[in-house]
Write a structure and sequence with these properties.
Blueprint: E1 3-12, E2 20-28, E3 32-36, H1 43-51, E4 58-63, E5 66-67, H2 73-79, E6 81-84, H3 96-102, H4 114-120, H5 122-126, H6 137-150, E7 155-159, H7 167-184, E8 187-192, H8 195-201, E9 204-209, E10 212-217, H9 225-232
Parallel strand pairs: 3-8, 3-9, 6-7, 7-8
Antiparallel strand pairs: 1-2, 1-4, 4-5, 9-10
Helix pairs in contact: 3-6, 4-6, 7-8, 8-9
Length: 234
Amino acid sequence: MSDMLKVTGLRAGYGGEPVLQGVSLRVGKGEIVAVIGRNGVGKSTLMRTLIGLLPVGAGQIEYAGREVNKITAQARARLGIGYIPQGRDVFPRLTVRENLLVGETARRGGSPDYAKVYEFFPILKERARQAAGTLSGGQQQQLAIGRAMVGGPDLMLLDEPSEGIQPSIVKEIARNIKRLNAETGLTVLFVEQNLDLIVNLAQRGFVIDKGRIIAEVGPDEIKDREKVKKWLAL
């Protein structure tokens, strides 16, 4: 399996001592991989560095065989990296439809498949004219994923997709991400501390603590609730 994403010795942070202390990981094409860890261990810093919102202090990020260390976030999106930040970051005063249109700025060509977005998330079609800020947290998360889908990514980065969302919607989002992966070959890397989402969605994973990857988790272990619970408690 070829690497869609390869990270080697990555150091990054917000000034002073880096938050990430030499992170290395690989995500194969078509995989769904989780980075597991509690609050404050570097998960969001990792996502923000991978998409280009934080500069690389040291190390290397390769996407589809190409080094992207010095490429802007906008350019990475146009290369095919979708990003759903923690807290969703929808535009609250724009309608659902207008938020989806923003996703077109990341497209490399071709027409976006809005029908597919609405098939996966029917609520977005229902609420197309509604201001995004009036949606529930779960609906906003569906909108954020739908907006990324409009861009036609090959790799999707999700930062804490379960945050602030009721369990039933978390399960629905997991089902749709798995379906996207199965139907389109979308590669997914997500960071998470929600036990249910990790064991139901991830195919394998990495454990992060204090800015370092301390364990690689295989396909069987990632489905073992007790083991994952211990890693989340580190």
